[in-house]
């Protein structure tokens, strides 16, 4: 049922975004990738699944780039049916030392970009009579941790934004939801593992164990494939009445 639809997954050259793009492509969904770094390898991985794949290198902190990305989707794919707002960055520091430019970048990329993609893609979804918006928030969209004020503010904001747009579209064939992952071992989290290893003087495996033990009761990392499967479910017909939810996949992190 997702065959022949088009998904835009922001920040999909690595990590969770790439996992979600591949899961959608396995359903026959055409995919537009976005993000920094090497795009050729992820493009080839998606294309190998037999769907049409595109790439646009928009910097999601820039509204004009985002407008160009959506225009590319309209011109090359006939519009966006599934919008996955996934691009995100992290910076860890106490609030009084938090670099102002890092705060601005986190709010722009992790929160404001979803406003721009949504406002630009939603009219087409409504016009074509089908759409799914999935916002990749975080356990930090539901609870806080110290030293992550910008990230926690952005992710709580993204959950609030999700609810508001879900209410605005509640009687339409477009659903809007958020997914709140716990720890997923991607480049974004490996940096935090490396910092913990250096601080505690332990090796990579012990640092991963400590990171999980602190927050994630399952003691397992959530995987991009699991998040891809949840995204596919939220895009299915069966999920038509799942609206405005912040769906945790966090090994029990937010159950405590
Ligand atoms: P990642 O660093 O592996 O991937 C981030 C992606 O975003 C990359 O493709 C990168 O190129 C892209 N990106 C970064 N800045 C960009 C910009 N300005 N414009 C366009 N693309 C940009 O990180 P990840 O762990 O896969 O994170 C993906 C999302 O999942 C983020 O929103 C993150 O907050 C969220 N998340 C991650 C975890 C985790 O444990 N890894 C947990 C909860 C939520």
From TrEMBL:
Entries under CDD domains matching the protein: HBDH_SDR_c
Residue stretches in coiled coil: none
InterPro entries, sorted: 3-OHbutyrate_DH (IPR011294), NAD(P)-bd_dom_sf (IPR036291), Sc_DH/Rdtase_CS (IPR020904), SDR (IPR050259), SDR_fam (IPR002347)
PANTHER family associated with the record: 3-OXOACYL-(ACYL-CARRIER-PROTEIN) REDUCTASE (PTHR42879), 3-OXOACYL-[ACYL-CARRIER-PROTEIN] REDUCTASE FABG (PTHR42879:SF2)
Protein family membership: Belongs to the short-chain dehydrogenases/reductases (SDR) family.
Record's protein name: 3-hydroxybutyrate dehydrogenase
UniProt source species: Pelomonas lactea
């Amino acid at each position: 049922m997702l065959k022949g639809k088009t998904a835009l997954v922001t920040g999909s050259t690595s990590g969770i975004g790439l996992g979600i793009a591949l899961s959608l492509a396995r359903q026959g969904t055409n995919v537009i990738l976005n993000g920094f770094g090497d795009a050729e390898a992820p493009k080839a991985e998606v294309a190998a699944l037999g769907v049409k794949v595109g790439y646009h290198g928009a910097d999601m902190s820039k509204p004009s780039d985002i407008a160009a990305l959506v225009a590319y989707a309209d011109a090359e794919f006939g519009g966006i049916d599934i919008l996955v707002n996934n691009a995100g960055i992290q910076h860890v520091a106490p609030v009084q030392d938090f670099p102002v430019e890092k705060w601005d970048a986190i709010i722009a990329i992790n929160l404001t970009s979803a406003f721009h993609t949504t406002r630009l893609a939603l009219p087409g979804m409504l016009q074509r009579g089908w759409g799914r918006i999935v916002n990749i928030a975080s356990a930090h969209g539901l609870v806080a941790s110290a030293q992550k004020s910008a990230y926690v503010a952005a992710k709580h904001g993204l959950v609030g934004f999700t609810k508001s747009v879900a209410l605005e579209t509640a009687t339409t064939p477009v659903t809007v939801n958020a997914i709140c992952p716990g720890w997923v071992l991607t480049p974004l989290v490996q940096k935090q593992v490396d910092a913990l290893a250096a601080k505690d003087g332990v090796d990579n495996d012990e640092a991963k164990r400590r990171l999980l033990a602190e927050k994630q009761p399952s003691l397992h990392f959530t995987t991009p494939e699991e998040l891809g499967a949840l995204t596919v479910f939220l895009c299915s017909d069966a999920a038509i009445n799942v609206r405005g939810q912040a769906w945790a996949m966090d090994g029990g992190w937010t159950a405590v």
